[in-house]
Design goal:
The protein is mostly helical. Helices cover about 40% and strands about 5% of the residues.
């Protein structure tokens, strides 16, 4: 199965008819995104991938054992859609995950 996101493919998926009752947000934005991506049967938008926001320092730090507080401090606070075309399915995923993601305060 191809995992490369394309606007046309995601735009054509009907997400309004998907039963949302099983979706329980965890408050962890990227985990919630992946749950909805599977539920909607779409590809993950590049701006909604966790590795798009991880710096080299964060990657190295995740190898070591950190406390929950240190990991929470590394959570992203802004989503960046700059120079990306947005399909309606990815936009719906974003807005369904944002209310429970208390750390994210900015959309660019």
């Amino acid at each position: 199965m191809d995992t490369i996101w394309t606007f046309e493919e995601n735009q054509s998926v009907e997400t309004e008819k998907v039963d949302m009752k099983p979706f329980k947000p965890t408050g962890k934005f990227f985990e919630d995104v992946q749950t909805l991506v599977r539920m909607f049967n779409i590809k993950t938008h590049p701006a909604l991938r966790e590795n798009s926001y991880r710096t080299e320092q964060n990657v190295n730090a995740s190898v070591t054992h950190e406390s929950q507080d240190e990991q929470a401090q590394r959570e992203i606070v802004a989503l960046n859609f700059f120079k990306y075309r947005l399909d309606k399915a990815s936009l719906r995923v974003t807005f369904l995950c944002l209310p429970s993601a208390q750390n994210i305060t900015t959309l660019k």
